[in-house]
Write a structure and sequence with these properties.
Belongs to the GST superfamily. This protein is α+β, with helices and mostly antiparallel strands and about 210 residues long. The chain folds into two domains: about 70 residues, Glutaredoxin; about 110 residues, Glutathione S-transferase Yfyf (Class Pi), Chain A, domain 2 (Up-down Bundle), CATH 1.20.1050.10. Helices cover about 55% and strands about 10% of the residues. It has seven helices and four strands, in the order βαβαββααααα. The chain has a four-stranded mixed sheet, with helices on one face. The radius of gyration is 17 Å and the shape is globular.
């Protein structure tokens, strides 16, 4: 049997699919119609009690939260595809450092900017508050200035090898570009890293 991914074409489902592709793990993608509230149905909530996508079903083992899924896949299939989690203790420490930076520095303003410009108009029927969007873009820009200096010395955020820490940046990193900013492209080292990561991304349409 293959891993079943229950998701929608949203940022974090994209992350799970990307990890599966990097690890060369077979999977079935089962589309969840979030526009019509399928993720709030009793059947879905039985598997994912918060009513969000994605979750996976690995031969009866149910797991949700994209980062947890990513670590599970990278650990279970450690001997195939791209390693994604280093085995050397120092390299692993740098991986955890980069993953922590993504959560504490990058994710907040990137999520807020994407929510304001893309999600609120599409999913919530709300107009974009341009001031809120620009505030978060400015905050994210300051963080990416630091990334630019880090990436001048190495290929990826945790060193010279691709890890989950890089892929964690992928969902909202892509969306802030779609939102019309030049946050990535205006920083050569950040852009170079982003292009490497995005080149292997599978685009979900439904």
């Amino acid at each position: 049997m293959v891993i079943k991914v229950y998701g929608a074409p949203t940022a974090w489902t994209q992350l799970v699919i990307c990890v599966l592709e990097e690890k060369k793990v077979p999977y079935d993608y089962i589309f969840v119609d979030i526009f019509n509230g399928e993720q709030k149905s009793p059947e879905f909530l039985e598997k994912q009690p918060f009513g969000q996508t994605p979750y996976i079903d690995d031969e009866g083992f149910i797991l949700y939260e994209s980062r947890a899924i990513a670590i599970y896949i990278a650990t279970k299939y450690v001997d195939q595809g791209t390693p994604l989690i280093p085995s050397d203790i120092k390299a692993q420490a740098l991986f955890h450092q980069a993953a922590s930076v993504e959560v504490s520095r990058f994710n907040g303003p990137a999520l807020a900017a994407a929510m304001e410009k893309l999600y609120n108009p599409v999913y919530n029927g709300l107009e974009c508050d341009q001031a809120v969007f620009e505030k978060n873009v400015a905050q994210l820009g300051l963080k990416l200035d630091v990334y630019e200096r880090v990436l001048a010395k190495q290929k990826y955020v945790a060193g010279d090898e691709l890890t989950l820490a890089d892929l964690y940046h992928l969902p909202y990193g892509r969306l802030v570009g779609i939102a019309g900013t030049d946050l990535m492209t205006s920083r050569p080292n950040v852009n170079r890293c982003a292009v490497r990561i995005l080149s292997g991304m599978v685009i979900l349409n439904n």
